[in-house]
Amino acid sequence: MDLDPLFPQAGRASLPGQKQRLTRRSLPIALLLAREATMARFRPMLARHDITEQQWRVIRMLDEYGEMDASLLARRALVRAPSLTRIVRVLEKRKLLRKRADKLDSRRVLLSLGPAAGPLMAEVTPESLAIYKEIESSFGQRDMTLLLDLLERLIARG
Questions:
Q1: 11 lies in a domain?
Q2: Which of 126, 65, 51, 127 is nearest to 96 (CA)?
């Protein structure tokens, strides 16, 4: 049975005598497909609030961890430093983010949530939680917990 029309039943191997895992059973492909299937549920909600996926990750990290320097935020939010610079500019204009120079090291930029972040979080969080609940109910709480635990193990072994 085909799992996805993108990957019909078995094709041909490019190298004779070489057994290669089917593309749809490739871990990197499966993770990308899972990400896309998940984000397809969140993108419309983010778009309604005029927030990109990367901007939302930045806002969530600052909400969860509080003020932090730009390099740490880039790592935690999984964005490249040049992208973070653009994101900071946009979010700062919208008063969703504040930046300030570190008093001990003026080369470091410290970022925190701005005054408009609270109202945005109050609107987006319930919608986001409803999407998570929908995913969990269709997937099953036990399987969802297992999936997240396995992914954490995979990440930790990097």
A1: no
A2: 51
